[in-house]
């Protein structure tokens, strides 16, 4: 490396210079004494905005949302070792489940104090290894830029995911001579692989002869802007498209071939397609737990599966494939379209697709017709229809886990991908509000709507001050049913209504929001939802809409787990 332009600086300054070299614009975090050298350097880095949070976990969710919505790494900084670092674990496990490129940085014990039962000592290297793609602990001040380059490279290398960098106090405070910091383009992959010509031709031949084809899309299409290529391919094949749960925004709502989300947490039309298809083209999806529960109850055992994935270990992992192609889903969709030649709306699949179109249209009409728009207390179906009617088409959505959010996932309409951000397979409660703040910072041009239950919002409402302090104007809709809904549903359906620990007592969240300086709205009737949401969107400040939802409107999603208790 060229060392003619050496600059002396502290390890903390070198860490911040490394962030500047990566063109980082926002850092989420919580101040602590272990990384004070780095915070002092951030003071002078005017091109980086520090977003101070109240909990390292929620800061990690913000970085996660920022990364998913913006397509660039999200950076979180836990200023304190020990408890500051341990608070990151849940957020990093969530980011790992979503393959979200979060670069997490934490202060660490001084090197001379390791293995001495020092104050706030914990083995952070071991702690983070199971929930990240890779974890490092810096051993020399001179190597800090190298460590940062490696962290960003690994986070952004397919399959993307979170990384952890531990920076000991003494490494940050020591000074060293540093050469010029490298441009990321000199150590980052700039392209993604297409499918091999022979595999693409084999897949095209299989698709040409399919009579009941279906395309299943996931995050590999959603996060790479591949919906246009997929829609061209689907039109040529005359094939409907189902989306993996949590990725209902991979294909814009309203297209005639978009069947919505499939599987145990999807809708019956999309689910039927995958259970009856003779050829399934899985584009950028693992066909994993949320889509299939790993069961042939949710996918046709006799279908020929063509799976195209950027992560080679995902191909054929859960279901045997007829053709497995290691490739970027967007590139491969374009290749398949080209390989099909002049093929256009194949007549072989005409009856299959005609039946699908009729069912999809009837399902959407029935969804609106059966919405409980006049019911009191508020039913989920009425709430979701009111939101469909009230929210703008360019809205982005974040959701929690839990019974109401799981019901909402396929009940809302997603027009501009990517615009749906959920806990996915990690099933985390307490994610949505903080994630929405990160999404809004990455995409300030879009309204951001965060759906949560009252239990999950109660976990994270302290970040209302973060939203107010930094003018992060999201709208949080608290579906307040006064209980841990998923668990209460299982106690109702499988444990003889022997309720324990299922009820939640909460303050009026609209009033809490106002105390923080945000806008607060209370809704007790479906007819008032549209007006409240419209006012929240126009509030020019963070807003909370506390919606009283019927505590009895519960649904047991994991019925498979309690088959042994079914009557």
Q: What report would you give on this structure?
A:
The protein is α/β, with parallel strands linked by helices. The protein folds into three domains: 7-186, Thiamin diphosphate (ThDP)-binding fold, Pyr/PP domains (Rossmann fold, 3-Layer(aba) Sandwich), CATH 3.40.50; 197-361, 3-Layer(aba) Sandwich (Rossmann fold), CATH 3.40.50; 370-565, Thiamin diphosphate (ThDP)-binding fold, Pyr/PP domains (Rossmann fold), CATH 3.40.50.970. Helices cover 37% and strands 17% of the residues. The protein has 23 helices and 20 strands. The strands form four sheets. A six-stranded parallel beta sheet has the order 3-2-4-5-7-6. Helix 2 links the parallel strand 2 and strand 3 (49-52). Helix 16 packs across helix 23 (529-537). It is globular, with a radius of gyration of 25 Å. The N and C termini lie far apart (70 Å). The mean pLDDT is 94.
- The counted number of beta strands is 20
Sheet with the most strands? Answer: 6 strands, parallel
Sheet/helix structural class: alpha/beta
Query: Could you tell me how far the N terminus lies from the C terminus, measured between alpha carbons in angstroms?
Result: 70 Å
CATH architectural group of the largest domain? 3-Layer(aba) Sandwich
Rg, please?
25 Å
Strand order of the largest sheet: 3-2-4-5-7-6
Low-confidence stretches: none
Helical fraction: 25-40%
When the domains are counted, the total is 3
Per the CATH scheme, the topology name of the largest domain is Rossmann fold
SS summary, helix count: 23
Give the CATH level 1 class of the largest domain. Answer: Alpha Beta
């Amino acid at each position: 490396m060229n060392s003619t332009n050496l600059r002396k600086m502290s390890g903390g300054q070198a860490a911040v210079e490394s962030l500047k070299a990566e063109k980082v614009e926002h850092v989420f975090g919580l101040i602590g004494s272990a990384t004070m050298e780095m915070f002092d350097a951030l003071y002078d880095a005017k091109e980086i905005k520090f977003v101070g949070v109240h909990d390292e976990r929620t800061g990690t969710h913000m970085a996660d949302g920022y990364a998913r919505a913006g397509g660039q790494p999200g950076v979180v900084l836990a200023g304190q070792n020990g408890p500051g670092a341990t608070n990151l674990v849940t957020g990093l496990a969530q980011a790992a489940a979503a393959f979200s490129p979060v670069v997490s940085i934490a202060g660490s014990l001084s090197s001379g104090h390791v293995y001495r039962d020092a104050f706030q000592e914990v083995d952070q290297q071991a702690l983070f290894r199971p929930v990240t793609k890779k974890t490092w602990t810096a051993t020399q001040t001179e190597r800090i830029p190298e460590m940062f380059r490696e962290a960003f490279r690994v986070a952004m290398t397919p399959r993307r995911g979170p990384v952890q960098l531990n920076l000991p106090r003494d490494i940050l405070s020591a000074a060293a001579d540093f050469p010029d910091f490298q441009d990321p383009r000199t150590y980052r992959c700039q392209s993604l692989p297409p499918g091999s010509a022979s595999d693409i031709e084999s897949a095209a031949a299989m698709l040409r002869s399919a009579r009941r084809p279906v395309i299943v899309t996931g995050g590999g299409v959603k996060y790479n802007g591949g919906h246009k290529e997929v829609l061209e391919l689907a039109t040529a094949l005359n094939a409907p498209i189902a989306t993996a749960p949590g990725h209902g925004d991979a294909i814009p709502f309203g297209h005639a071939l978009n069947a919505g989300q499939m599987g145990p947490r999807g809708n019956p039309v999309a689910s039927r397609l995958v259970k009856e298809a003779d050829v399934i083209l899985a584009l950028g999806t693992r066909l994993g737990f949320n889509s299939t529960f790993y069961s042939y109850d949710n996918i046709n055992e006799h279908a020929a599966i063509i799976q195209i994935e950027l992560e080679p270990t995902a191909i054929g992992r859960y279901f045997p494939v007829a053709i497995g192609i290691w490739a970027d889903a967007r590139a491969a969709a374009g290749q398949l379209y080209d390989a099909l030649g002049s093929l256009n709306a194949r007549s072989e699949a005409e009856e299959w697709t005609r039946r699908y179109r009729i069912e999809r249209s009837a399902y959407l009409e029935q969804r609106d017709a059966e919405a409980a728009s006049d019911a009191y207390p508020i039913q989920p179906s009425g709430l979701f229809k009111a939101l469909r009617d009230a929210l703008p088409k360019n809205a982005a959505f974040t959701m929690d886990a839990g019974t109401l959010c799981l019901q909402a996932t396929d009940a809302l309409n997603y027009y501009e991908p990517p615009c749906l951000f959920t806990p996915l397979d990690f099933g985390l409660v307490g994610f949505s509000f903080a994630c929405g703040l990160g999404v809004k910072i990455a995409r300030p041009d879009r309204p951001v709507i965060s759906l949560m239950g009252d239990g999950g919002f109660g976990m994270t409402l302290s970040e209302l001050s973060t939203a107010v302090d930094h003018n992060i104007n999201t709208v949080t809709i608290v579906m307040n049913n006064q209980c841990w809904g998923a668990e209460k549903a299982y106690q109702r359906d499988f444990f003889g209504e022997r309720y324990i620990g299922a009820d939640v007592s909460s303050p009026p969240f609209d009033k809490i929001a106002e105390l923080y300086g945000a806008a607060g709205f209370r809704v007790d009737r479906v007819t008032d939802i549209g007006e409240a949401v419209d006012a929240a969107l126009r509030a020019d400040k963070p807003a909370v809409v506390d919606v009283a939802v019927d505590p009895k409107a519960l649904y047991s999603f994991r019925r498979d787990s309690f088959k042994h208790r079914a009557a």
